[in-house]
Amino acid sequence: MRWPVVAAAGLLAFAGWEWARQQEEGGAVVEFVNQISEEVADVANSLTGYSYSKVPEQYRAAIAAAEANHGLPDQMLARLLWQECRYRESIITGRVRSPAGALGIAQFMPATAAEMGIDPLDPFAAIDAAGRYLRSLYRQTGQWDKALAAYNWGIGNVKRKGLAVAPTETRNYFTQILADIGLGGIYA
User: Distance between CA 95 and CA 79 in Å, rounded?
Assistant: First the structure.
């Protein structure tokens, strides 16, 4: 997955060049930065295949409520759940389990679901629990990249080892989620 990084780097280099050009001309830098941010988010979304339109209508209200109730950035939970299950019915219902044994829409391990007090195959309970769990991870780490990494790799690994040695899967996990919701490079 190096080409998405190259594409993003190219956009950032162009953004820097354009910003310098506009500084010389006295242009509207804020407007330009907003425009580039939207374009980078659009490119990131096209690279990962995610768009909010892929969130099934039946889960949208529950996801929005969980994001609001738990103070999550807009669409973060929707994007995380897409990463976990791609909203595939066979995964949500538990007909398909992850190789590690994770279940349901939020891909909770059975022990984590028990700690959260939910049935991981109840998508509405799991959506709220995933929001609650992600907020807890954020409180423990203080940064969204670390909280997302902890959701994927485990809080113990993030605390003991740090993100620098996180597996490629985990680095891609939090980087892609943050980029797709327009928070690439903004972690606090």
Answer: 22
Above 70 in pLDDT, residue 15?
no
Q: Looking at the structure, tell me whether residues 27 and 63 fall in a common domain.
A: no
Spatial contact of 105 and 85, defined as CB atoms under 8 Å apart: yes
**Nearest Cα to Cα of residue 148 among 88, 63, 76:** 76
pLDDT averaged over every residue in the chain: 85
Q: Is 41 left (phi over 0), alpha (psi -120 to 50) or beta?
A: alpha
Structural domain includes residue 186? no
Over the stretch 63-75, which tens digit does the pLDDT of each residue have?
999 999 999 999 9
Question: In the chain, how many domains are there?
Answer: 2
- Find the domain containing 39 and state its range: 2-48
Residues 166, 82, single domain; the answer is yes
Shared domain check, 60 and 43:
no
Tell me the whole-structure pTM to 2 decimals. 0.75
Under 8 Å between Cβ of 182 and 37:
yes
Distance, CA of 87 to CA of 105 (rounded, Å):
7
